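Same chain as my last thread, 478 residues:
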Amino acid sequence: MMKKCCCLLLIAVLFAACEPLETGDPPTFTSGVTATAISQSQIALSWTPATDDLLEPEELSYAIWYSKSSETFDVATDEPSVITPEGAHGYALLGLDAGTEYRISVRARDRGNSYSETLSNDPQTKVIATEAANAGAFREELVIDLTRTPEGLAVGVGDNAPRATVALLSGNLVTLQTFDSSDAAETTTDLNFGAAVTEAHFVRNRDNLNYDDLFVLAGGSLVYLPNSGTGFDISDLEQPFTGSATTHSFSTFRGESGVRGVMYQDNAGAYLYEHDGEGAFTQQTAPTLDADERVKLININGDARPDLVFFGPGGVAVALGDDDDFGFDNRDEVDDDFTRITSEHTLYVVDYDGDGDQDICILERDRDGSPETQFHVYTNNEGTFSTRTVTDYGDAQLMDPSFPVLGATDVRSLLFVQETSNTAVLYSSPRDTTLDGIYGGSGQADWVRFIDINGDNFEDLVLLSAASDKLTVLFGRE
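reply #2:
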């Protein structure tokens, strides 16, 4: 009898293993696909997610077929050219021929390998040409194969001002990658910090210089590496800071010509240092924090005094500086209805609208366990903050935000990595959900920045992929 039960159990297990992963209806995909020629070698695609009777939208992938218009494919019989990761809202096709017309079709795909139906007017099929050679906003992308898997990205000006340096974080190393004026990768320099590096910041720190110093979180501590003007030498490393430092806690207060204050925090509290403008730091009395609270050192209202922004379980508050020597008034409540959840919220303070007043922006991801992205914004008008506005990006799974200045004014855009794709997406501000741009790199994207790499006064786009060990650079043309 026991042998019979075991055999029946084995048959049941084998039968279950042979069943398809998903046996419902095919996905419903009614969104039109938007196709944009990014350069002479890249076309970026975006779409509104499909729905399914069994799966959530973030559990659907997308199949992409493409060929030159002079060639043919059949979505009913041919294998897709690309299958995206689950949850993608877009994808970029790279390595295309300049000035060439392509036919592209996209279908939603469930885990049972069922595809959405072709609609009568087929809004998911596009015919579009790449930019002609030497035309478009970007030149042909440069893809660099990395020798180590990257774990982070920073950009700034190292030893070739005004050309920028790209810093790749991996283990104990910060690898500095520079580029020459002809858009070619130039030299790499490895800086070994002797402990795991989790964050790096290029900061225009000392007075009246046109290059940046490095602040690095290594082994849980904040360290300082000054720039000699001809580059970085790890033997110049300084450790003026006490305690430890958590990621996303580093902030600075700028004066007219350089940094005047540095702040960071760990689980024990905050640490505050005054900077003399020449590379020396003196510890000051830091504010007392509540449990799970974050604080940023900024200048709120342009009066040349350092101020503080708090975000924690008690809500959002500010404390204005009462003098130039890092004394602060009592906290003023901004919003006590919006409280910080450690795993979901990251605090940013940035002048996104270019009016000279620092605004409070809070990124919320994976709210209540769902893959959603929101930006909560308090706009600052001479020290008075607006009621919180919420910008909802739905289940787009966006991460690694940065705030580049891309126009002639100081207004900042909002740049994200799309976590489940090889693309970065651009919005005009943290209060806008209209897509301004979508750009692609080689491999699933993890980090992205705009920076002028070659010193030609055009912003270049840097995309870094840990999954494929690739660094992609799109050189700006206009």
